[in-house]
Amino acid sequence: SAKVDKSHITKETITSTASPIQAVTTLGGVDSHAALLALDTNAQNEANEPERGNWTGRFDFLLSLLGYSVGLGNVWRFPYLCYNNGGGAFLIPFTIMLIIAGLPLMFMELSFGQYAALGPVAIYRRFCPLFRGLGTGMVIVSAIVMLYYNLIIAWTIFYMFASFRTELPWQNCEPEWSTENCFSYEMADKCEALNGTFYLRICYNATYADEHNITEMTVNALKRPPAEEYFNNYVLGLSSGIEETGGIKISLAICLFCAWVIVFLCLCKGVQSSGKVVYFTALFPYVVLVILFIRGVTLPGAVTGVLFYLTPDWKQLANAQVWGDAAVQIFFALSPAWGGLITLSSYNKFSNNCYKDSLIVAVCNIGTSFFAGLVIFSIIGFLAHELDVDVEKVVDQGAGLAFIVYPEVVTRLPISPVWAVLFFVMLLTLGLDSQFALMETVTTAILDKFPNLRQYKTWVVLFVGVFGYIGGLGFTTRSGMYWLQLMDKYAANWSVLLIAISECVLIAWIYGSRRFLNDIQGMIGKRSRTWIMFWSIMWRFITPATLLFILFFNWVEYKPATYGHYIYPMWADAVGWIVGLLPVFVIFAVAFQQICKAPDSMSLKERIKYLLKPTPEWGPAGRPRINLHPERYESENYDPAANTSILTEGLPTDLSIYEDNLTVIYHNGNGDGNGNDGNGGMEDEALQL
């Protein structure tokens, strides 16, 4: 095909009365029946399917994306990493890793999902049949994480309701759940005020303590704060190991049920309902963080804690561990390759500026992480001051920070129940946003697979919720915490990194980064050559190399699973490996199946090459695809990605209403697959008829 002189393009007829739709264009004044247009039969089928639905507004999506990307890890993991890896200096590798790994992956997946308006399973089925298992692998990861993530939400519900009393239940060592090692600093202070010695929950007078060497014994005694024993013994009913399952904790099972009910009510109408809930769940944590910051910095010892957090140790920048931790944190903070980003963006309008959304969320993520660190360390500094110990003695991360350190802090504040309720409601909203996206990923996969079920979406959400609740009951047993830690270590680790690397290779190399960037420009508008070159280099070289570094770093730093001082048995680690490698196994199994199903007349090499090409169904969201060469569908060598097509601006298939606004995506046939025409130009041109 030769270059087309746009000035000579005229339109004679565009009709929608024939089936398939036919139109005749005049190129250069010559009637060209070689440009016979046939509506893709798959597009006709899509028109008959129930609509997927869309976000009711741009901010619905933006806040949902913000809530998904800014989660519990920003509050309970990033501050610890910052303290442990050079204080303020850690922000440098963290920001760099955000730019070269986190942001490119987020932008890629948001564009990918928005362009096709499909969830991860359906999009890879059309985009690359050989690796259609990639989408299934993403959904498996989200489904596994969804099961135990809601248990963390259940814990916050438990603590939230437990805080509605005049005195917090973990303020003192109650005989109901405490051991002899429980040490209440409040009771110890009262005992010392009476010139006594507090030991094994008993206040001894000075004379008796001296006669029986009790004062000396207290120095070497094992001391556990009430908040720790309350969490382990009362809330979890923690057993001695993963082998000792024990029974289901009824209180946790009830809280887990409440958590799933909340998720169901918020998602029962899909993004139309969750898009409104996120106005509260995504913004409320910032309100609480500001309140806690104002209160925290006014506490004695807060300045020491904040300085401990911010003081940079520039020597740490030469430590590979610091860069590895930064890369891992930003990768798992933004959660690419889980399917959530593709799912959320698939409900966008075709023209939504997903590039701007990516930048906003990336900046908010790093800003939230940094600010949360100020809040947490001001509070930790206060606790260290109260206990008269160094800050490093009380600093913690993860569940230990949220359910042990902070609850211990609030017992020392006036009107402590108020501060406890605020904190746990904040954790609840942070967790719910992430859970919404995880569950939406699973339900979207089901609805894209069975489009006729879209009219019964509420029942599908209910089915997934019931499945999630039953599957999550195992985590409410006395050994549930051990299983949660095991799943958290293996379920979304190496498999997610491998999926992300595969995604970069498929989109940037096989499909072509330039072609993909052309698709993006069709949504957000034309961009400069510098912009195109930057993202092409990122997706083709820098981001995959960074992901390989993260993967290698994880392998080098691998250690068998532990929880505190408990070391998991070998069989438990084996179970973790099986769960972690399950998505990868599915990817290869589906690829093998696709190769076997390919035409027998093809060699293995031809089958692989054929299956790496997009299917005829691949194309922009909600746009009927009109192919100039429908007979090429019959050919085994048909390349849909290079197929000339006309894309209409809108969802209806009645093209007559677009007589004044019809766009032809013209392909000159000389492309290299990466967006180049072989002559320095772009292989696709949008011509206005």
Automatic annotation (TrEMBL):
Bridged cysteine pairs (disulfide): 173-182
Entry-linked PROSITE patterns: NA_NEUROTRAN_SYMP_1, NA_NEUROTRAN_SYMP_3
Disordered: region residues: 669-689
CC annotations in GO: plasma membrane
InterPro entries: Na/ntran_symport, SNS_sf
Residues the record lists as binding Na(+): 67, 70, 74, 365, 430, 433-434
Keyword Lyase found: no
Membrane topology term: Multi-pass membrane protein
Location(s) in or outside the cell: Membrane
Chain segments annotated as transmembrane: 61-78, 90-112, 133-162, 250-271, 283-310, 330-347, 359-384, 418-438, 459-484, 490-511, 532-554, 574-592
GO molecular function, one term: metal ion binding
PANTHER family: SODIUM/CHLORIDE DEPENDENT TRANSPORTER, TRANSPORTER
UniProt record similarity statement: Belongs to the sodium:neurotransmitter symporter (SNF) (TC 2.A.22) family.
Protein name listed in UniProt: Transporter
Phylogenetic lineage: Eukaryota, Metazoa, Ecdysozoa, Arthropoda, Hexapoda
